Amino acid sequence: MTALQSGQATIEEVVARYPEYAQRLVPLLEVALRVVSTTAPQLSDEAMDAIQGRLLRRTVELQARPRAENRRLAVFSQWMPRFRLLPVTLVLLVALLMSGVWVSSATAASLPGDVLYPLKRMTERVQLGLALSETGRIWLHIRFAERRLEEVQAVLEQRGQLDETTLAEVGDETEAALASAEQLSDDQVEVLTTLATLTERQQAVLAAVKDKAPPQAQAGLTRAMERSRRGHERAQVALQGRHQKPPAPTPHPTHTPQPAYTPKPTHTPKPSHTPQPTRSPKPTHTPKPSHEPQPNHTPKPTKAHSN
Amino acid sequence: MPSYQDEAELVARAKQFDRTAIAELYRRYVQRIYRYVYYWVGDEPTAEDLTAEVFLRALESLTTYSYRGVPFVAWLYRIAQARVADHHRRRARRGEKLPLDEGLISTEENLAALAERRETYKDLYAALQRLTAEQRQVIVLKFVAGLKNEEIAYVLDKSEGAIKALQHRALASLQRILGEDDE
Q1: Which residue, of A32, A207, A284, B106, has the fewest CB within 10 Å?
Q2: Average pLDDT for residues A78-83, to the nearest whole number?
Q3: Contacts with B142 (C-beta within 8 Å, 6 or more apart), sequence order
């Protein structure tokens, strides 16, 4: 097939290699070749670049994990012995924190396209890199997915337009959380339930945004809603799978220890004769009551004497 | 056709999150994966999304891939196969038709562009529809994706012998079905 597609061989040459199928192969190969050449749509350059962008953004996130962890360890080991620098470090830290309060609030409020927005995203990547556990990282992705959704609303409200990248970020964060959540062994139900709720809310918000969005943003919004819907289903499927799974795997015993010596039971005494119950005595004859005595004759009052 | 050695080197660099290597691998295979996915789902936006999912999944699990006689692209097709199957399961749960029931005309947008193709190849699609799911997979992987039998065996998690047998039966069935339709 490859040779045919590249023009390196003709159908006749291919068929000659499989003479036993010649009669059947010729029409099939002709059909197959036509299928290959005409039903093969090409991914547009724009779509290809968009996917590559998502792929490379995810690469940066994945790359940030080990590097940040390594950097944290390196900084820790480098500064630990230098206690004499502690006062200077503290002063610098306080100064940085004070100036950082303003920058951080301005950064947090920034939107895609703003000067401070790359800083906001970089801060998020660092946070992801510093997460101490996979579950912590997933919760961060969930929080960032919520932020992306808020940004979509804010961008449309403030600028009256939406670009594809801003919309794609909602799905990127959600899918990153989902991909990690599917691999979790602990806390999976809580995370997946949150993701199911999040994706449901995303769909509702995106549908509301779609009503207000300009025509050029409609296709991107449809795609974002579709991704969100698929994310919701993915969370539900994972949750169902989780519920169907047994609570914990049954460990296979590596070796069942055998007792060194099984003592034989000693003679089991037979039960002695069980005495039969003695005959229950029947109740004796209940005597009938004797003739009931009649009341005595009531004496009539004597006649009263008149004076 | 890139050599396996060249590819192995690219994959090794990609595992270290070398962005140039990742972009190179992506550019090298994206059209093939997209075409394969498109063939099964039948509409461009879904095929684009699933293609993106395939490459993101591949990136996230790149550390688990190791070359054991199976080229990188076969591994990608395996991921694509799983994503497509997942997509079909979701559609089936929603009671939607599977792609070959509608052919490649599932959206209004595609209708005009695909009408001619559909007219020309509707017999083939109808014939494919009458094959079993496994036979269809083998035909698509062989004739659309252009994979070798050993690679198809890896993608479908079957032995090479089973793939040959499946392919033989699929071709025989396809020919019989097409023959019936011609009469």
Answers
A1: A284
A2: 48
A3: A1, B149, B152, B167
Chain B contacts of A27, Cβ < 8 Å? 175, 178
What tokens were used for A251?
Answer: 């460990």
Length of chain B, in residues: 183
Determine the Cα–Cα distance for residues A161 and A40; give it in Å rounded to an integer: 34
For chain B, state the CA radius of gyration. 17
Q: Give how far the C-alpha of residue A81 lies from the chain's centroid of Cα atoms, to the nearest Å.
A: 43
Residues 6+ apart with CB under 8 A from A150: none
Helices A86-108 and A117-130: crossing angle in degrees, nearest 10, is 120
The neighbour count for residue B55, using CB atoms within 10 Å, is: 24
Asked whether the beta carbons of B156 and B146 are under 8 A apart, the reply is: no
pLDDT in tens, B51-74: 999 999 999 888 888 877 778 888
Which of B45, B59, B178 is facing A59, going by the closest CB pair?
B59
Scored b (16 or more CB within 10 A) or e, B126-159 reads ebbebbeeebbbbbbbbbbbbbbbebbbbbbebe
Tokens representing A204 are 């509702």
Candidates A29, A36, A49, A55, partner chain B, best to mutate (most B CBs within 10 A) = A55
The angle, 0 to 180 degrees and rounded to 10, between the axes of the packed helices B72-93 and B19-41 is 40
Task: Provide the token pair at B161.
Answer: 């012998």
> Which among A1, A56, A227 is the nearest to B142, CB-wise?
A1
The half-sphere exposure of B157 on its side-chain side, counting CA atoms within 13 A, is 4
Distance of CA A32 to the CA centre of its chain: 42
Angle, vertex CA B37, rays to CA A237 and CA A34, nearest 5: 155
- Euclidean distance between CA atoms A151 and A120, whole angstroms: 12
CB A174 within 8 A of CB A228: yes
Q: Write the single-letter amino acid at B3.
A: S
User: Tens digit of pLDDT for each residue in A99-126?
Assistant: 666 666 777 788 888 888 888 888 888 8
Contacts of A232 (CB under 8 A, 6+ apart): A196, A199, A200, A203
**pTM for this entry:** 0.46
Q: Contact at 8 Å (CB) between A128 and A72?
A: no
Amino acid letter, residue A136: G
CA angle A170, A176, A177 (to 5 degrees): 95
Cβ contact A55–B23 (<8 Å): yes
User: Residue B174 and residue A28: Cβ atoms within 8 Å?
Assistant: yes
